[in-house]
Design brief:
Elements: H1 2-28, H2 34-38, H3 43-65, H4 69-93, H5 100-125, H6 136-153, E1 161-162, H7 164-174, H8 176-197, E2 202-211, E3 217-221, E4 232-236, E5 241-254, H9 256-323, H10 329-364, E6 373-374, H11 392-413, E7 418-431, E8 439-452, H12 460-526, H13 532-566
Parallel strand pairs: 1-6
Antiparallel strand pairs: 2-5, 3-4, 5-7, 7-8
Length: 573
């Protein structure tokens, strides 16, 4: 029995190792398109699995040779997997991307490796020189190994099921539109840093070399040289070579334009944050609509499947009645036509369902090759005592008003004088050419204060101020309009939600009633009391009731989103 268990263990761990090497290696080297199917894989975990796969093959050889190193290698493998699991938890806590199946897979791998380690220790390390007698538990262990391996070898073809909140959280993390607005926030912060940097001194190093082929002329009064008064004599000053090396600095002491720009960039950061929040709300609406549409189509598919079953039974019943000359051939054809229409409708709805799932994956930032499933039902009830907060649109217009007032202040302050400190320090060199050439340097340095007072700029500032005042009036009107509209939308959304809840209850009752009528009609048809036309009418009544339920469900979900949006609670859970 010992040899049989060790050989079985060697076979199982060899297959386990080969599968591990193939799967992890395909992900590492992107073979056969497996990387795309794995979704958000963690590279460290994949590499650890790849390493463990080769260790499993060595362990399989150890099982065959009954070598004591087998147990040690398995314990080393467990240690590697435990360290990988610790890294995975750290990765998850750091908001890293991952798949839930990764956690389950590594826990399963640790448990299975521990099982092989126990077998190795019991049959090799701890009982090397002992004869093992057959025991009933050995048969149980053998069976357990086969079951475990069978479980592992079956691929998990079921798609991961996401709730509405999980879809929204994933989209808020991965959606590309949100990432773009996050970049706008970073840009706004850098603009503020740029505005602040204008308060710091500006230092410039300047080097300038000139070689005059012809020295510049200056006119001097001829009287200075003993000539007649009222006449001038041209004179050349300077030396052919001039070299200047200076360091200049400029420091604003009082500049209202710079101070106002800093305040404006603060408001720009807040505006960018609000726009990012609005983009998140837009993503929530789009994801929710896609999720709800997928739920509707999923329920519609379930209805169609139920109708197909009923129609198939009706075809059989009608065919039997036709054989007994109790029904017409046209009745059989009509029922078969209805069944064919349902099957065609199922294909159409299923295609729409896949398209909606692809749209949902796109909004979530997931590859289209990933598997995704949704919950069939969503029974969350909104609490209407939610605090009513300003919506993103209202916040945006309020922040734009703040920016308008800040820009208006900047225009008014631009009429004030500016004061700046500046200075230069360096050296100037003069040199001649020819046999008696020389080069002499003379230092230069000065500091100064400059006051600039705007006196008249052609009324340009006045007209800019008038434009800004008009813009403020316009945005104020827009703010009041949005506030009033939001109050109206809040009342309407609450009433609409209540109506839709009652509509759901009514349509659900209609479905039950239509099903009861259909069952009774089937019985009456078997008794020869009801005709095929009555059966088809009863079946159409079920479809109509189901369609009414689906429409009511869509309207209910839309009312939920609308109420959350108009109360400013769309991102609140």
């Amino acid at each position: 029995m010992k040899n049989k268990i060790l050989k079985l263990s060697a076979i199982l761990i060899t297959l386990f190792g080969l599968i591990t090497i193939f799967m992890s290696g395909s992900v590492l080297f992107d073979l056969f398109g497996i990387r795309a199917m794995e979704g958000n894989f963690v590279l460290v975990i994949v590499f650890a699995n790849f390493l463990c796969g080769f260790i499993y093959l060595i362990v399989a050889f150890g099982f065959v040779k009954e070598s004591k190193f087998t147990t040690r290698l398995l314990f080393v493998t467990i240690l590697i997997l435990l360290l990988s699991l610790a890294f995975l938890f750290f990765h998850i806590n750091s908001s890293g991307l991952y798949e839930r199946k990764t956690v389950a897979a590594i826990l399963f791998r640790i448990a299975l490796t521990g099982l092989f380690a126990g077998i190795s220790w019991y049959y090799i390390t701890g009982n090397k020189n002992k004869s093992i007698k057959p025991r009933g538990n050995s048969y149980k262990l053998e069976g357990f190994l086969i079951i475990v391996f069978s479980f592992f070898s079956v691929n998990d073809v079921n798609a991961q099921t996401y709730s509405i909140n999980q879809c929204i959280d994933t989209a808020l993390l991965n959606n590309r539109n949100i990432k773009l607005y996050k970049q706008d926030v970073l840009l706004a912060k850098e603009k503020k840093n740029e505005a602040i940097s204008n308060l710091l001194p500006k230092i410039i190093a300047i080097a300038d070399f000139k070689y005059y082929t012809n020295l510049p002329y200056q006119l001097m009064p001829a009287k200075a040289f003993g000539g007649p008064a009222g006449t001038y004599k041209e004179v050349q000053f300077g030396l052919p070579q001039n070299l200047n090396a200076n360091v200049q600095f400029n420091l604003p002491l009082f500049n209202t334009t710079i101070l106002n720009s800093i305040q404006t960039t603060d408001l720009l950061i807040e505006l960018s944050e609000i726009q990012k929040t609005k983009s998140e709300e837009d993503v929530v609406i789009e994801v929710s609509n896609a999720y709800y549409n997928a739920q509707i189509l999923s329920n519609q598919l379930a209805f169609i499947d139920s109708n197909i079953i009923n129609s198939s039974r009706l075809v059989q019943t009608t065919s039997l009645l036709h054989q007994q000359q109790l029904a017409k051939n046209s009745d059989v054809d009509r029922v078969k036509l209805q069944l064919a229409q349902l099957q065609t409708q199922k294909i159409t709805v299923f295609t729409q369902y896949q398209q909606v799932l692809n749209a949902l994956k796109f909004q979530m930032g997931k590859p289209l090759t990933d598997s995704l499933a949704i919950m069939k039902e969503y029974n969350e009830i909104i609490v209407f005592e939610l605090p009513i907060q300003p919506t993103s649109n209202v916040k945006l217009i309020e922040k734009k008003l703040d920016m308008n007032y800040s820009e208006l202040s900047g225009l008014k302050y631009s009429r004030l004088p500016t004061l700046g400190l500046y200075g230069t320090y360096g050296t100037t060199g003069y040199g001649s050419t020819g046999d008696n050439s020389f080069f002499n340097f003379y230092s230069i340095g000065f500091v100064g204060v400059q006051l600039s007072v705007p006196l008249f700029n052609g009324l340009t500032t006045h007209h800019k101020i008038e434009q800004k005042i008009t813009e403020i009036d316009k945005n104020t009107i827009m703010k009041n309009l949005l506030s009033e509209k939001n109050s109206l939308d809040t009342k309407n959304a609450k009433m609409q939600y209540e109506v839709m809840k009652k509509s759901i209850e009514t349509t659900a009752t209609q479905i039950d009633l239509a099903k009861s009528i259909w069952v009774n009609t089937v019985l009456q048809n078997k008794q020869g009391v009801a005709s095929i036309t009555d059966l088809l009418l009863a079946d159409n009544s079920i479809r109509e009731a189901q369609q009414n339920y689906i429409v009511a469900l869509i309207n209910l979900r839309k009312a939920e989103l609308e109420y959350k949006q108009v109360t400013g609670n769309l991102l609140n859970k």
